[in-house]
Specification:
Number of helices: 17
Largest sheet: none
Shape: globular
CATH topology: Growth Hormone, Chain: A
CATH superfamily: MFS general substrate transporter like domains
Radius of gyration: 21 Å
Mean pLDDT: 78
Distance between the termini: 57 Å
Structural class: mainly alpha
CATH architecture: Up-down Bundle
CATH class: Mainly Alpha
Amino acid sequence: MFKHWKDYWKGWRKMVRLRSIAIQKRLVITFLVFIAFFSLFRSSISSIFSLYYSHFGTTDNEISMIKSFQNVGFLIGILPAGILSDRIGRLKIVSLSSSLMVVSFGLLYAYPVSSIFFISEFLYGVALSMNSGALLAYYSSAKKKFGIKGDTSVFGHQVAIMNFMTLLGGNLGAAMFGVSIKMPIGISIIGFLVYPIFILCWIKFFNLENSDSVVKVSPFLFPAKRIWQNKKFRLLVVINVLFECGIQLILIYWPIIFVENFNYNLSMIYTLFIIVNLMGSELFSKVSSKISLGKFLPILSLCSVAAYIVMSFTKSSAYALVGFLIVEFIMGLMDVQIVQFSEQLIAEYENKSQVLSYVTFLTELAVISSLVLNTILGSLLHLSVEKLLLISAMYFFFLFLFSFLITKKEALTDVY
């Protein structure tokens, strides 16, 4: 018994020492810990959404439409959330987001019918809009407030931690789904109930109460002319739109393709794709100072096109899996740079959350249109889930054309 108390005391002393470290390290640790907490409890349910809906009799085309309601909620909430985040504080809006997620998942848990799925996804989308970019804006504004120099390696750590916690949470969710269909939802509800309390206690313990800046923001919901004239803003919007539209279908349908159609183990596939995604993000973190993503974006886009075409036409589960892992590896490569690029963009503005919300709003508007188009084409042409992936290939082909033309003019490489 004494030994346990001794171990407890050692752990407490470590926490006290952490409390006294430099403000720069405290901010980095705080940013990464909050990212890890959110990613863990979100991923424990996100990996089983499609299977959950399918279990209760929802068709593949209906699932795509249901997921589009998440994007509608996100689209409606993102611009007001950006303004509110700057006005009341980023951490407060993150806590509010968690509370709304509890409501969304509670409905999903209590009433598993199609009509409630639409409502739940809509609320979930609004909650995600509140959280979107809030922690990045918090970290960026706190750095400026305390006069701290930026360290781009933190964004590599961010993506690595997100991927690791997604891997952990996804496997826990898959394991719980095997025990009880509703268990992952229940655990996520508990996690997001605790999250706001955890944020409050952490901030107080590490003396960071004044780290969350509040700024006066413009009452206008749409970007000012000065933002539209920013080359970084325009490039980020186009890349985000094409990239996000290109990955939506595989993010929605991978459990159906590989678990239901090819009879792979859910946990194995989930683990594989997160590990490969993590490898991509870590690789880019290592070489980001030496290699410009702009120079390799056309190649990465073409590789994605080829991978999607393979997944669309092959009857071999092995070839389909290889194509899937190639797409995930490329997603990992691009994720770190997009986050880093976003932070570089918002560093130029005081209303950081609002600027990020502009980028996200335009991206989500395109994603919603894409999901609706996918549903219509799937119904009219009677396309299977695999054939729908040809639409994803089309988006990455457009990304190839865009990046090739821009790189040729040296605009993209100048920014990256």
